[in-house]
Design brief:
Layout lengths: L2 H13 L28 E4 L4 H10 L6 E4 L22 H12 L11 H10 L16
Parallel strand pairs: 1-2
């Protein structure tokens, strides 16, 4: 480590703060435990692991609220977030489909925006869900 890196490391260990001149801080597994970061201006944390203990340890280093936690993995998960029972085996309204897409499944576009029903439906079908589209008029299912 060079002198600047040693200074930043020392500041984090002893002052429990990331110096203001640091915009991005990379921490490896050696720092999963034993350090506390008390900054209140951290926008997000990115974690490069799916291991639940690692995620817990890394998130736990920040001793303040966090608006966004991003988990990046090398593998691709083929199934979406599990669909809660209340959405299964019954007709869904447009609002319920929207809520399912945005709040539950969170199948994200490359820009990080949740896809809407038109894109989510084939994704769900390819993941094993059976979907039947019907238009309900006046509470009557044709």
């Amino acid at each position: 480590m060079n002198s600047e890196q040693l200074s930043v490391r020392s500041n984090i260990i002893h002052q429990q703060k990331i110096p203001e001149n640091i915009d991005i801080l990379l921490i490896n597994a050696a720092c999963e435990t034993g350090i506390n970061i008390k900054n209140t201006d951290i926008s997000f944390i990115i974690i490069g692991s799916r291991d639940k203990d690692t995620i817990t340890q890394v998130r736990g280093r920040l001793r303040s609220d966090l608006n966004l936690l991003i988990i990046i993995t090398k593998d691709v998960q083929d199934t979406p977030n599990p669909i809660p029972e209340e959405y299964l085996n019954r007709p869904l309204t447009s609002n319920e489909k929207e809520s399912l897409c945005i709040d539950v499944i969170r199948y994200l576009s490359p820009k990080g925006v949740p896809y809407k029903w038109k894109a989510v439906k084939p994704y769900l079908e390819s993941s094993g869900y059976k979907i039947t589209d019907r238009i309900i008029k006046n509470g009557i299912i044709p």
